[in-house]
Design brief:
Blueprint (H helix, E strand, L loop, with lengths): L1 H24 L12 H25 L2 H8 L3 H5 L5 H19 L7 H4 L1 H18 L1 H11 L3 H26 L3 E2 L2 E2 H21 L10 H17 L2
Antiparallel strand pairs: 1-2
Helix pairs in contact: 2-3, 2-5, 2-8, 5-7, 5-9, 7-10, 7-11, 8-9, 9-10, 10-11
């Protein structure tokens, strides 16, 4: 019975893995304008910077394009020459933050995860949590958006899966680990990723601006200890 159940779980994960690979190959891309002049590039950067501030202050639902135009110092007409609506702006912002999160959460260098798994895990979590904390107000707006618009749910899922795929691959490549507690290691990584993501939200996105936040070094050590004990204690 156990063997049959395990085979069913493995098959379910295999089918899910195929869907993940398809999803990653068709990752959502924002409608980001491509200005060719220095002035146009500077204006685009100003819009995105203003967008991060406005979405962070107002949240996703309450944000208005007029607020963004005011913050960026542009007329509505000038703003609409770059973006058609607030969703195009927000998708561009979230896409950029995700790429930065993904880059920031890479380990220290080639071979690090194999030679020093705890050090690599800690470096990865420091990078992820530091960048999350830096953009914590926008991440709070992003979580709000996932509750009301499927486009952001898809973006969230893509962001999450991209991290899980990377660690699953590294575990198999560097440590020959395909299982954890007798089950596919991906299940364990899904739980660990969820723990880290929710911890980041509770520690950084949820508190009000006036409330103190947990230092990134302490946060990274807490989640890294859990990651390392779970993956390498047996």
């Amino acid at each position: 019975m156990i063997g049959t159940k395990k085979k069913a779980i493995v098959m379910s994960l295999f089918l899910k893995w195929r869907k993940v690979l398809i999803m990653l190959s068709n990752a959502p891309e924002p409608k980001l304008p491509s200005p060719t002049t220095a002035k146009g590039k500077a204006t685009l950067a100003r819009i995105l910077e203003a967008g991060r501030a406005v979405f962070g202050e107002s949240g996703y639902v309450s944000m208005r394009m007029s607020d963004l135009a005011d913050r960026a110092g542009l007329s509505m007409g000038a703003l609409y020459r770059y973006f058609d609506n607030k969703d195009d702006v927000f998708l561009a912002i979230i896409h950029g933050i995700h790429n930065q999160l993904y880059a920031a959460s890479r380990s220290a260098g080639p071979g690090t995860f194999k030679a020093d798994p705890y050090g690599a895990i800690l470096a990865s979590n420091v990078g992820y949590l530091a960048h999350y904390a830096e953009h914590r107000k926008v991440m709070r707006a992003f979580i709000e958006a996932t509750m009301v618009d499927e486009r952001y749910t898809a973006m969230w899922w893509y962001m999450r899966e991209r991290h899980i795929v990377r660690v699953t691959t590294a575990l198999q490549r560097d440590h020959g680990r395909a299982e954890s507690s007798g089950l596919p290691v991906r299940l364990t990584l899904e739980a660990l990723a969820s723990m880290t993501e929710q911890s980041a939200y509770v520690w950084y996105a949820h508190p009000k601006a006036s409330e103190p936040i947990l230092p990134v070094a302490d946060a990274a050590r807490i989640v890294s200890d859990i990651w390392h004990r779970t993956l390498f204690s047996t």
